[in-house]
Amino acid sequence: MKQASSKTRSVRGSRTGRPIMALLDLLGRRWSLRILWELREEPLTSRALRAACDEASPTVLQARLTELREAGFVELGDGGGYGLTVLGRELCETFMPLHRFAERWRSKSGV
Amino acid sequence: MKQASSKTRSVRGSRTGRPIMALLDLLGRRWSLRILWELREEPLTSRALRAACDEASPTVLQARLTELREAGFVELGDGGGYGLTVLGRELCETFMPLHRFAERWRSKSGV
DNA sequence: TTCCCTTGCTACATTTATCGTAGCAGCACG
DNA sequence: CGTGCTGCTACGATAAATGTAGCAAGGGAA
Description:
Chains A, B: It comes from Bradyrhizobium sacchari. Chains A, B: Keywords: DNA-binding, Transcription, Transcription regulation. Chains A, B: Residues 26-108 form the HTH hxlR-type domain. Chains A, B: Pfam families: HxlR. Chains A, B: GO terms for molecular function: DNA binding. The structure is a homodimer. By secondary structure, the first copy, chain A, is mainly alpha-helical. The first copy, chain A, has one domain: Arc Repressor Mutant, subunit A (Orthogonal Bundle). Chain A is built from 6 helices and 2 strands, in the order H-H-H-H-E-E-H-H. The first copy, chain A, has helices at 19-27, 32-38, 46-52, 58-70, 86-94, 98-108, and strands at 74-76, 82-84. The first copy, chain A, has a two-stranded antiparallel sheet with strand order 1-2. In chain A, a hairpin with a 5-residue loop joins strand 1 (74-76) and strand 2. The radius of gyration of chain A is 15 Å and the shape is globular. The N and C termini of chain A lie far apart (41 Å). Chain A binds chain B through residues 8, 11, 13-14, 16, 19-25, 27-34, 37, 54, 70-72, 87, 90-91, 94-95, 97-99, 101-103, 105-106, 108-109, 111, and chain B through 8, 11, 13-14, 16, 19-25, 27-34, 37, 54, 70-72, 87, 90-91, 94-95, 97-99, 101-103, 105-106, 108-109, 111. Chain A binds a DNA duplex through helix 4.
């Protein structure tokens, strides 16, 4: 597997030494959660991922993918295509109950 | 409890009719996850919340708080102070395992 | 009343992030 | 050779976040 470059893009909040803050910051960036969500079942090529993410700009997607790779959640397969690492799969399952919650949420709120 | 204005700030992704997308988008905005996290134990005044969020600009915090109120996750108490609604507390517990995950994550990744 | 302090909230100029479109180099297939 | 895919990038336009300052409303205390 190819390694993400380690030019250490600083994660806001990591300075506090509280990893939860760094994680919340990373996941709180645009498209981060969505990318993990779309990769939850199978690896996707960069273009397929873009299609799954409502044609979001490739600029941000590349940026998020690089960050997620540096964080160890996503990896680029040898034959191309982005997939979750073991760690990434754990993370994904951590907030998988969000799906059921979202359904309940809609029924209560009219957003 | 005071109600958040309902001028329907559109949530990106809600057009697809898939509530999980709307939720991922809302939570994927800056400081959203952090705000929920900081309110997890007790209500905080707007200024205390700001302090807890590394002195983030009050402009975004107000925006996020309004969105979270409209979504039904956060409410403004009568005597002042922001707190989680019942729904918000459920949501918060949904990704509470993230805390433990973050600790394991740091030990594996050098971010 | 006046003074002081805290509440939620906003204005505004600057900086940063994201968007949208286009296009690059590399590789495989025919 | 061209065709079509891959990951990835440049760049101007636009939207969002930052940082600083300050507002009006309300609650005491003197």
